Amino acid sequence: MAAGPGIRKAAAVVLTAGLSATLAACGSEDNGGGDHAGHKGAPKLSVSGAYVSQPPMDDMAAGYLAVRNAGGGADELTSVTTPLASEVTLHTTKGTRMRQVSSLDVPADGRLELTSGGDHLMLTNLTHRPKVGERVSFTLHFATSDPIEIKVPVEPTTYRPKD
Fold it and tell me: Which pTM was predicted?
């Protein structure tokens, strides 16, 4: 038995109203004001535990640090610059496989940990071989947050931070 014209018209009105409300909700999520994170909040980043291991070679070094995000919105570390090296690349390590990546996630209300044997920075084409006790300037660049500038100590090759 087919639905009558009245039922079809009522169903069309309900469907149209529902679709309009859905589209309006989608459109209001990002009004260009950057406030669509209103429920999530913005990233609030800080850096700790940063260091560079004294490199065994003249042209390459590794960097480690932690980025804490106390905010409700996630971010990404997209690049790092330093006067010590012409290139700094981001690397992730899974098991024994290391690979270069274009960014590393900084989760909302979480941490990005760059550690020996894990995710880390590779500094290549060094301007000089840094010595233990030297301090190196780094600028961390993020997808949404402002850059963060830090001074990083050079630690012995065998250095392992305390938890």
Answer: 0.74
